Amino acid sequence: MNRLFIAPERQNEWNLLAVMNFFLGGTAAGFYFLHWLNLNLAATRAIPSSLKLIAPALVGMGFLGLLFEAGRPLRGFYAFKKIRSSWMSKELFFGILFIMAAVYDFLYPDVLVRTTGAVSALLFAFSQSMVLYKARGISGWNMPLLPLLIFNCSIVKGAGLMLLIYGMDLLRPAGPVLWIIFISFISDFLFWFLYLGYLNEEFRESVKALRRFGSMLLVLGAGHVIPVLIISALLLKKGGYEHYAFIAGILALSGALAGDAGILLRAGAYRAIRAGEPKSILVESGEESKCRIIPIESAKRKSISK
Amino acid sequence: MLIDLRRCIGCEACSLVCEQKRGTRPPVRRVMDCGLSGPPERIRNFLPLSCMNCNNPPCVEACPTGATYKTEDGIVDIRADLCLGCGYCVLACPYRARAIFYGTKNGASDAKLREKTGTCIKCNFCMERVHSGLKIGLVPGTHPEATPLCVIACSAGALHFGDINDPASRISRLLKENKAVCLQEELGTLPSVFYIPFTSEFKE
Fold first, then answer.
1. What is the spatial distance between Cα A101 and Cα A290, in angstroms, rounded to a whole number?
2. A222: helix, strand or coil
3. Which candidate from A82, A87, A303 shows the least CB-CB separation from B65?
4. Do the Cβ atoms of B49 and A135 come within 8 Å?
5. What is the CATH number of domain B2-196?
6. Is B68 an interface residue toward A (CB < 8 Å)?
7. Which residues of B touch A82 (CB under 8 A)?
8. Of A175, B72, B101, B134, which shows the fewest CB atoms inside 10 Å?
9. What's the pLDDT tens digit per position in A232-284?
10. Which segment of A281-285, B46-50, B112-116, B179-183 scores lowest on mean pLDDT?
């Protein structure tokens, strides 16, 4: 029967500061990973050392935003206590590990530390995606494709920043890195389509705002299609399109920011409260009553009346 | 806990007594207006809503500090001194049963309230009351001193509390006599609050 008791309602717990954390953190993680790949794939021109601190600075700014949003920011260090169970703890752990590795690599360049930084950047981005997925009260986030979408978005955001710097002629990505960027844009485009096309009725209602023409034009058109065309030109032609990379970067970052804000704020609606079919919860079974709905837990649960 | 929706008149006495006892806002127990039932009855239905103290609570898994925990007897509670006020558990709860307490208008004068400011609040079935009653041999749901305040304050007798594993308890008897529902059953949270549905809505 699944009767609706209370209709969905917009969440107001996490606001623009949370969007800032997801956007800056994702961008930094994606950028650092691509930068690491670029160094390992013999880039013709590496990033200037002064720009190497961009990624840890962005993650740090994102965390600062989170602290401002928390009711008791001075207790921030408690958030590392549940690394095994809470994805928010994991996010903070990998984020701090990433910052430390990136700063250390900046001061004392070391391949092993840089690799640790790149791996922790990826784990940080994945933890961010799982933070949203595990918010079970929000139907627009608690869907299986979301972790893939948010994780892939991090690579796209990092690619946006890399293209922007490439357009400023401060680095030159190696060919394989450009191909990875191209593939990440294409896969992100597909993930967005699958995410917005998910058939669950309540989910569709919560992402309604993201399915509007203006939103899709910004997120998919400006954020994906135009950058893909520019990257294709960069891949096919050997020169002459470098300055367009700047535009591709700006558009990719704008689209990703709109996407993050859309998912967190527009699609962030509490799920409807529903009841199932009425049924017998307790049935007589010999002398003792047994619970049908929670048979294992009720047996385990210590009786509070004793 | 068992809530008989056939009896609830939406007086909000449960919500008021809870708010008065805790001194925090927003109230952790709310009475939602579900609108009118279909013709010919056209009865206004209410849904008292609070923490379901789930057996499989998503908030405990979400909490990054370990402030949210589950007691041995299945009650989910918060250690205010550990809570960061990040709001993640609020979003993880599919029952909208949690909120962040941002302090009172005049500033909290009570030390307990000051400790709770900026942290998450929720219903814990008046845990201290139930536990202190149990210590002196009282039975929750039978003796008022060991029963949550909302159950005592309910003017229509819609709220019931007790041990469903005890076949002699009032709550067990009611559950045996009536069909009941759980909210968001498909999510597998195994809530500890059951509802006897509105008769007008669940005619068989």
1. 55
2. helix
3. A82
4. no
5. 3.30.70.20
6. no
7. 63-66
8. B72
9. 988 887 667 778 899 999 999 999 999 999 999 988 889 989 888 888 877 65
10. A281-285
Q: Chain A, 75-94: which have a CB under 8 Å from a chain B CB?
A: 75-76, 78-82, 85-89, 92
Cis-peptide, bond into residue B40, ω within 30° of zero: yes
**Which of A96, A305, A306 should be substituted to probe chain B, the one whose Cβ sees the most B Cβ atoms within 10 Å?**
A305
What pLDDT score was predicted for residue B86? 92
The reported pTM is: 0.88
Q: How far apart are CA B58 and CA A268, in angstroms?
A: 17
A3-275 CATH choice from 3.40.50.1950, 1.10.287.370, 1.20.1630.10, 3.30.565.10: 1.20.1630.10
Q: Which of A100, A154, A101 is nearest to A126 (CA)?
A: A154
What distance, in Å, lies between the first and last C-alpha atoms of chain B?
Answer: 24
Q: Kindly tell me the number of DSSP H helices and DSSP E strands found in chain A.
A: 11, 6
The predicted complex's ipTM stands at 0.88
For chain A, domain boundaries: 3-275
Alpha carbons B78 and A148: distance in angstroms, whole number: 32
Nearest residue on chain A to B167, alpha-carbon basis:
A289
Q: Using a CB–CB cutoff of 8 Å, tell me whether B138 touches chain A.
A: no
Answer yes or no: is pLDDT of B94 > 90: yes
Is B108 within 8 Å of chain A by CB? no
Contact assignment for B183 to A274 by CB distance below 8 Å: yes
Alpha-carbon gap: A17 to the closest alpha carbon of chain B (Å): 12
